[in-house]
Amino acid sequence: MVLAGRSISTVIVMTLTIVMTSLLSHAEESTLISIGLRGGFSNKTPLLGKQQREEFRSYDVDAIFRLPWRWPLGAGKWNLGTGLITSVGLLEAAGDAGVMATVVPDLILTGWNEVISFDAGAGAGLFSRYQFGSQDFGGPAQFVATIGIRVSPFTHSYAGFRLLHFSDAGLYGSGSLGVDLYVFEVGYKF
Length: 190
Description:
This protein is mainly beta. It contains one helix and ten strands. It starts with a helix and ends with a strand.
């Protein structure tokens, strides 16, 4: 069972690496949109999934890259674009801590001269630790889903709020349990 879980994790990570490398190599106009700091927490009653056994905290650094696919909406006041959210940081609960890294392709809706943006995406995460106290994620590779809102009232800064969900979607069996995080973010916008 452990070998099967590691094999599945390896295949997911390799596939994600190949897909992201391919996307970025074809994305001639890819640029760095922003870099920032994020901090989050969970509650035992999640928005998605089952009742959680532990309360989590997260601290990470993220970078968002613009991918070249963009479409103007409604007389140019709004735009729908694509991006890639990458992050690396620390996840902790029940006295345990581990490193987490995520890669999430994202759709980004921006308006009012990029003062406000909404985004949603799904991707993958890799965790150095997947057992936190009595809560077990099942394995190191996890699916990641996110929705967020950002406000940029000043030219090169932003603040935002994001819902982040980690789950194996049953990949490691029915005993695993993901986590929902409420994440606050601030950073520099290029």
